[in-house]
Design goal:
By secondary structure, the chain is α+β, with helices and mostly antiparallel strands. The protein has one domain (2-83). Helix content is 40%, strand content 20%. The termini are far apart.
């Protein structure tokens, strides 16, 4: 998979599929969000219901997270700055 930076906290992940998936690492308080079918159909409903498990990350989210040193700290800084006025 190829990962392309989009904007702060958001990345495009290109796989074998024709269109890239958009990954937002700060969504759901750092669990992340992806527009792939697996995430949208299976994982996001559980996050919306209040579950906060890292197992709810899809492979695209995990791919981006693996590329960022100190990813947990970086994501928490993004989340904090989003909440500031």
């Amino acid at each position: 998979m190829k990962v392309e930076y989009h904007e702060r906290g958001r990345f495009f992940v290109h796989g074998s599929e024709s269109l890239p998936y958009l990954v937002d690492l700060a969504a759901f308080n750092g669990i992340g969000q992806c527009d792939c079918r697996d995430f949208q159909c299976r994982k996001q409903p559980r996050l919306v219901a209040g579950e906060r498990l890292v197992e709810l990350r899809c492979r695209h989210i995990n791919e981006v997270r693996a590329l960022i040193p100190d990813v947990n700290q970086v994501v928490q800084e993004w989340i904090k700055s989003d909440k500031e006025p």
